[in-house]
Amino acid sequence: MSCQEAGPGGNNLLYHNNGDLTFTDVAAAAGVQRPGIANRTAAWADFDGDGLIDVFITQFDALYKNNGDGTFTDVTVAAGIVDNSENVQAGAWGDYDGDGYPDLYVALGVDNGGQADICEDLEDLVAIPLTQQLPNILYHNNGDGTFTDVTTQSGTTNVAGALAVTWEDYDNDGYLDLYVVNSGGQGQPNKLFRNNGDGTFTDMASQAGVGAKLPGDGRGSDASFADYNNDGFPDLFVINGGGSTVGTYMLFRNNGNSNGWLKVVLRGTKSNRCGIGAKLSLVAGGKTQYRQYTGEHYMGQDYIPVHFGLGQAIQVDSLTITWPSGTTQTLTNININQTITVVEP
What we know:
5% helix, 345 residues
């Protein structure tokens, strides 16, 4: 492999917004600086439901609990998260079972025998045997501050040098689905795990046509869902390539179905302008869905507005938003198949 050995790594930076168009780095005081560690990506969510945003950090993975006083505590071991050292590429939060607690999917790359590498050319990963590529992990949030590995029973096992992962309800049936970007070459397509609604998933990448591997290409980098044509069905943009290698960008239009949808644009007043950190609870068709608007995954950014698939529901019975300020706001009897803007009272 033509890879550079990773050095000790630089310090993380946590910028506190001072409210006057300036920021202050508070990473050291907050306990998340992690000097000398090969940090890679971060994913934010209030995993324990205490109203404070926590953070999961890779590449040497760790889960940090927000203490509410400007500091964080490493709770990785106590939470039941396995320390996979330098192999973790990304993590993404999503409440796939609708219990109100965000679950965590972790993408593991290549087993380098305990040595952290930064590959300049991801084409080299094509030659790596699958035995050296590690299985991803789906952690179910138990709601008590701990997680359980449910990868095997959920059907989300993936061994193909995964780099990125993102959640979205692509078919608007009311259940979050999972897209995984693999770097294992042309023979290892990306995965689209469709949520069956019973705690299990089925890979639909081939049927949906989003394996995203072209002849002579086969690399993977990142992907993001966005409704570019505003028809209510999330489309998919895939970035192939990494390091010095430029890939073939791929935009997949979602052809849709008969399921309904609702998109919510948040406008904070007391809270931040975009409502980042807000929690949304939607009831429609006898089903409750939960979202936390934090907006990030791997090296990409999800889009505004917040998207809900509604299945065959004829209306949204209620939408409750808990703003970062602590204000709770509830809307009722909302028409489906529209984008609404909700302003914090």
